Amino acid sequence: MKLLYKSQKYKKHSLKIARKQLKRRLLRKKRDKHFYRSVYKKTSDDQRSLRIKRKYKQTVNAPSNLSFLEDPNSVVLFLTKIESILSNSKSLYVEMKFVEKIDYATITALFAILYTSRKKGIKIDGSMPGNPLARSILMKSGFIYTLFSDNPIVGHKYEFTANNQLFTLNDRDMNVVEEIVDSVSTVLAGEKCKIPGLYTTVGELMDNTITHAAENENERWWLSINCNHIDKKVEFVFIDYGIGIFTSLSRKSGKEKIKKIFDEVCKSFGVDAVERHLEAIVKRSAGEEFNLSDGHGEGIYGIYNSLQRGDLNSLYIISNNAYGDIANNRYIKLKRELKGTLYYWEICVNNIKKYDYINSK
Amino acid sequence: MTISIANDFSKTPGFRYKIQSPGISGEEFRDNILEPKYKVAQQNGEVLEVVLDGTSGYLTSFLEEAFGGLQRKVYPEKVSMIQIISNDEKHWIDTIMKRYIPRAYEEMQSKQ
Description:
A: alpha/beta, six-stranded antiparallel beta sheet
């Protein structure tokens, strides 16, 4: 054995390894020195965040305005970055320190992506918004607790908090629709009853997702319901990460009537004017030809009619790269495409008071 | 003659086709209840009343498959002697009588 250790060949090999190890140690020391200098004057919260963030290979910085309804471009870009990282990486850190504004549409959209990824074993962590109001909204939503809880979502319903519920399924189920109506009617009318427009809206969106959104198997939809017992108002966010309305329409067979009509819409407004396409689909405003006599494609128009009748408020639709603030008649083309469709609407007590059968309760 | 969807069929009407919501679809309502009763009412010269009240609500696809589908089935005859009663959500009356049924008739005509 002594002969082996004394041999030139061994000594040369050993020296080479020692040099490599020294190089690595010095490099690590340099990185640590740089890191600790950077955290030295930070608050303890920041120091903790930085230490955690260091463990994650990929970081995504959230924009300051994380309101999907006010600034859809920034939020879609943010979600797209997250999705692209999660498809290639095993870990992700979401930096939300600089978020000033956030809404339930973003919280639901973010939860849907992150929960699915976490279930696949991808490591996810992040920081809380520095802004107290944004932080409070995020904490009250129960999103953080649920995302990192050891109790997974079982079945189709999860109660984030007493005021926030999440329903999710990859199928159609009228029992779930009824459960949603019962839950909301208890908030708005004090007991279980019919809520005009709600059964129709939720059922249509569920049907649209299962029928049109999926590329292969049934697509999963997510519906979050945020109840405000004081204002007697309920916010709904329905989202699926399918192919989106316009991709779905463009892929339909040429024999289908709705495809022919969609092609006509594209011709009259231009192929790129997706915001005009969305308006035409919502309002059926592309002329008489748009009134499909085979009765298909009534879903979104039906929801629009519910808005017109005053059965619901504040309807927003975001799909592919079209954004529609339907109540305010504002349609814009987004810079980035949302792969999927998001609907947001509200129902408050005033929406249902006009119905005699509710007033009598 | 009267049909009450809530009492005679389901309080939670489903989707369009049987395969989508077995037991509560528009297709089954039409085939098992609406069409047979419509034919009987016609033979007796009666108006068939269909009451929509009492359910949790309706999907457009359910109603279109039921009433538009009825028109498509009885074509070339025009669906008549049918009255929709909907006190909870009155808008369904016009939607069915002025859109679904006439449009289904036009669709069948255009196929001729």
